[in-house]
Amino acid sequence: MEEVLQMMSCSICGNLVSSQASFCNYCGSPLHPFQLQIQVSPPPSVCFYHPYLAASYVCSRCGRSICTYCLRPYGGLNLCPICFTSLTGLPAYYVTAPIVVPVYAARSIQAYRGRANPSPYTYSLQNRRLQLPLR
User: What is the rounded distance in angstroms from the CA atom of residue 132 to the CA atom of residue 102?
Assistant: First the structure.
């Protein structure tokens, strides 16, 4: 059985085109009304461990959203720190920050080493007792 091709005229140029076509072959105008489809993107997710950072990855094991700082690649998996530790037994975080000493402790250390004016209440490591100032 032969299929009959139905024709319609373009509303812009008036030429005959196939009714199955989406655009006119002559002028390029759309033949059927175009329906705009708006896709609403989901709200940006935040890291499970750092709620102030945006999540870039999802843990392959537990499904938590994680940031780039929490990402622990293992084989072909993207793991969160907890899943990484439970799978490998290795620590998830390594401390790489410098040691921060409070100001009062730094002054005592400097005074003990003779680099600053000693405080009257300097702790002496030799005799392990508090040195009170002389009056």
Answer: 22
Average pLDDT, consecutive stretches of 10 residues, N- to C-terminus, the chain (135 residues): 74 86 83 72 78 90 91 90 88 64 59 53 49 53
Query: What ranges do the domains of the chain cover?
Result: 1-31, 44-94, 98-135
* Amino acid making up residue 57: Y
What are the φ/ψ torsions at residue 21 (nearest 5 degrees)? -75, 150
C-alpha 66/C-alpha 81 separation (Å) is: 9
Query: How crowded is the C-beta side of 93, counted as CA atoms within 13 Å?
Result: 9
3-state class (DSSP) for residue 58:
strand
Across-strand partners of 30?
Answer: 23
Contact at 8 Å (CB) between 23 and 31? yes
pTM: 0.40
